[in-house]
Amino acid sequence: MAVLDLNDKQKVIAYQKFVREDPRGQVTQDPLWGDLKANWGHVYVYHETDGQIDAVLTVLTVEAVPGKLLGYAGRGPIADINDIGLIKAMIHEALAALPDNVFLIRLDPEVAYSDGLNEAYKSAGFVTRNRDVEHMHGNIQPRKNIVLYYDGRGEGASPINTEDELMLHFKRDYRNQIRRAAKDGVTVTNGDSEADVRAFFETYVLMAAAQHITHRPIDYFLQMQQLWQGTGLFKVFLAHFEGQVIASGIGFSYGDEIWYMYAGSNRDYAKHYAPYAVQWEMLKWGLSLGKVEYDFGGVGDFVPEDGLYKFKHGFAYHDPHAEYIGELDWVIDEAGYQEYLKQFS
């Protein structure tokens, strides 16, 4: 067990290689994510067997209550989640390197919920936050996601090996809408340039305004582009119509998964179904890389009344719902923890 020395270039490369190539890999466990979150502190813990990294825990810290730090391992650790002894040892290694005012280390691995796993973590001293959290925003990351499984899971699903098989995996009206977009002249490009990000941002701001939600600033996405450009792990997809970008999506490729992370669209062009064309191209990207999963991201609940579910489910209606274990909280300062939780009550 050790803390990553960021001056040790070979070890940093080994850490990143593990996070990017291990089937369980997640972009939020890459040290580049710590660079993106420049106003957060960070510590990177790894475990080796026979000189090879086989588990990592990336923890970023931010002041979440006055004078006290939240330590957050986004979608981490990347490890055998059933080896609770190992994970606790990694937490203690991280705490030894972090400031004394950390009140909580929060994990939220992308691992399926089960009563057994939940009870195992509670018995080991963790506070678990999953089915007892009533509102989606009680969690830092959504706990319920829509996922398309290329290996063919769920009733009526078959393994997806070709683009034709991928198209047939969608609901019939979704197939028609993808074809309608193409017939109308919608084309989709992808890249990782600054120009791509700026074009994405224009549609992202329009979507946020239409949905009356806040959005991240352009500098956040420009920093993302600069950090991941040329890695092949980050792509911006842009739907063009009559010389304008009318829909977009940003995806990351880590481990066995494509993670569809951000999107934008111009509702003035809704009749051309450009968001469906964007998804089609992003899903083909995952297929071309031999991925196992395409993660559409979170939904409020698995019900048609939920707008996010309504759009995403049509691409993955064969697929089982992905309900994750949620937040696994290792509490160091109970008073600080209770103060933090007040905002979610």
From TrEMBL:
It comes from the Bacteria. This is FemX. PANTHER family: LIPID II:GLYCINE GLYCYLTRANSFERASE. GO terms for molecular function: aminoacyltransferase activity. GO terms for biological process: cell wall organization; peptidoglycan biosynthetic process; regulation of cell shape. Keywords: Acyltransferase, Cell shape, Cell wall biogenesis/degradation, Peptidoglycan synthesis, Transferase. The keyword Transferase applies. It comes from Leuconostoc carnosum (strain JB16). Belongs to the FemABX family.
